[in-house]
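Quarterly update from the structural biology core.
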Amino acid sequence: MNAIEESAASTNGGHAVVTGSSSGIGRAISERLLGAGWRVTGIDRAPATIVQAAFRGETVDLTDRDATLACLGRLDAVAALVHAAGFMRTAALGEIELADGAAMWRLHVEAATLLADTLAPRMTAGGRILLIGSRTAAGAASRSQYAATKAALVGLARSWAIELAPRQITVNVIAPAATDTPFLHDPARQGVPPITPPIGRFIQPSEVAALAAFLLSAEAGAITGQEIVICGGASL
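Predicted structure, tokenized:
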């Protein structure tokens, strides 16, 4: 068995943990993986919305360390971790609420760290870690605190990728532009409406899920420490 075949044995059709699995990008990724033969444990603060034999939903607040650790302790071997849970609060300078930034940091960065710190040591060779970032990580007016948390994910991913490369475990970030999910229409961001990309439409969750499925596959075993942007031309 060659290196790619060994990687395939430990990922394709294995057990994936996906956060934010009840809606939006997290749900789209979960459904894509289920269709490809994976078992999926979805972790979300909201009740599970997927009903399939190979799906198990865990209702957990990822900002609650003890509850998260208890959930992870109930899992069997995990081949892939996808952290898609997230939310956005926006404000221009002079109106920033530090509590909003702290809440985003706890969910986007601290939860990612706790998940990876707990699961990565238990992954076998060929494991995968995938973080859902944002094109906003490069900076955007009135989104500074959100951008900071998503930029932090890139630093985490590149650092973990270096540590885990000897074990053939990859770590990457997918950074979508405005994606057509309930998150996009959150009333809390009405003051800063999303910008339609040059392609004339928002990114679809299924497009993010397709890339996620590839990055979790054996064929993507040489891609690690990367931030891959899906922007519909918005970064041009």
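The CA atoms of residues 170 and 221 lie 7 Å apart.
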